[in-house]
Specification:
Elements (H helix, E strand, L loop, with lengths): L2 E4 L18 E6 L14 E4 L2 E4 L2 E4 L2 E3 L5 H17 L4 E6 L6 H5 L18 H19 L6 E12 L2 E4 L10 E4 L3 E4 L5 E3 L2 H13 L4 E3 L2 E4 L3 E13 L5 E12 L14 H29 L11 H5 L9 E8 L6 H15 L6 E4 L1
Parallel strand pairs: 2-6, 2-17, 7-16, 7-17
Antiparallel strand pairs: 1-18, 3-4, 4-5, 8-9, 8-12, 8-15, 10-11, 13-14, 15-16
The structure holds adenosine-5'-diphosphate.
């Protein structure tokens, strides 16, 4: 039988595992100015620890990571709590939101040359490899700590792309136009999506490299390698253990790491024809995400029940659990320091503010 415990009934451990906090954690990260952005152009100043001012408005988040923040800092803010939540049995997601060129890809995956398959790690290494490095360490620790329970872990990963409202398997790109299914036992899943077992950071790095090289990118005038697609890396972590009476129990948690398509309004990219059509569809997933966030924020604030149209886009259907449902969610909102990006930055911060109002209902999945 499925035993579900409400997260707020669980004891707090270091303020992370079993935490009663079901709010969405929102982090804003400002990238450093690039070489061709004049120094004098930098517009954004952190007003205090967790606040930012722009266009006369001050926004406060869980954390504001300025241009000096490192990949290791972001891991401490978002990655380490995610791993602890996963070990405790919660589903956990991180979404990177922001306009093209603001640092989403850098934050979530890191530059591809920082994905090293040997033991040495790079300062540039992104959030995902850091999460798995920590996860495998923690799994070993848990196994040693609970040796009497014969704790067994199994991790299975998949990697997909949503482009033009079509799902492609990034681990087997011949598999395109995959369909989302839902059943009462497994919940929402993608039919025929490749799942690979992983036991080490090296296994994960291989999958990441393979998947990232299969991503689709389209060139627009705002950025040569503009990402017009959403990429979702998922890992299902199952742990089995034996209790004193010899019965075994199964705990399942799911990690989603999501690099969203650029949030910029289409008119600023100068795209036309085919690209504009793509953008229309991309905006459907992204604008649905925005819509849901508005509805969920309202539901959290007023307590009124409303129909939530998860199925109106692939992204929101697939990730519905992360949006107001059974998962802990962190949102990294990436912004550019440049004057020319001011209005996009403002709209990213407004999105981030609304996301902050959502409450999820995370529970431990145990049978
Ligand atoms: P996005 O995914 O939002 O389109 P990218 O992650 O590709 O943006 O970042 C755009 C450029 O800025 C890339 O060349 C990336 O390496 C660089 N960059 C982004 N964030 C940082 C950062 N925090 N430190 C150094 N370089 C960064």
């Amino acid at each position: 039988s499925l035993k579900r415990k409400l997260s707020n009934e669980l004891p707090q451990e270091n303020g992370v595992a079993g935490s009663s906090d079901t709010g969405v954690k929102v982090i804003v990260r400002m990238r450093p100015p690039s070489k061709n952005e004049e120094e004098g152009e930098v517009i954004l100043q952190k007003t205090s620890g967790d606040s930012l001012s722009i266009l006369g408005q001050t926004f406060t988040f869980d954390s504001v990571a300025d241009a000096a923040s490192t990949q290791a800092d972001i891991f401490q803010l978002v990655g380490a709590p995610l791993v602890e939540n996963c070990i405790a049995g919660f589903n956990s997601s991180v979404f990177a939101y922001g306009q093209t060129g603001s640092g989403k890809t850098y934050t979530i995956w890191g530059p591809s040359n920082a994905l090293l398959e040997d033991e040495s790690s790079s300062d540039q290494q992104g959030l995902t490899p850091r999460v798995f490095e920590r996860l495998f360490l923690r799994i070993t620790e848990e196994q040693n700590k609970h040796a009497d329970k014969q704790l067994m872990y199994q991790c299975r990963c998949s990697f997909l792309e949503i482009y033009n409202e079509q799902i492609t398997d990034l681990l087997d790109p011949a598999q395109r136009n995959l369909q989302i299914r839902e059943d009462t036992k497994t919940g929402v899943y993608v039919e025929n999506l490749t799942e690979e077992s992983v036991c080490s950071l090296k296994d994960v790095t291989k999958l990441l490299k393979k998947g990232l090289s299969n991503r689709r990118t389209g060139a627009t005038s705002i950025n040569m390698e503009s990402s017009r697609s959403h990429s979702v890396f998922t890992c299902v972590v199952e742990s089995r253990c034996k209790s004193k009476d010899g019965l075994s129990s199964l705990k399942t948690s799911r990690i989603n790491l999501v690099d969203l398509a650029g949030s910029e309004r289409q008119k600023s990219t100068g795209a036309a024809g085919e690209r504009l059509k793509e953008a229309g569809n991309i905006n459907r997933s992204l604008s649905q995400l925005g819509n849901l966030i508005n509805i969920l924020a309202e539901v959290s604030q007023t307590g009124k029940q409303r129909h939530i149209p998860y199925r109106d886009s692939k992204l929101t259907f697939l990730l519905q659990e992360s949006l107001g449902g059974n998962a802990k969610l962190a949102m990294v909102c990436a912004i550019s320091p440049s004057e020319s990006c001011k209005s996009e930055t403002f709209s990213t911060l407004r999105f981030a503010k609304r996301a902050k109002a959502i409450k999820n209902k995370a529970v431990v999945n145990e049978q």
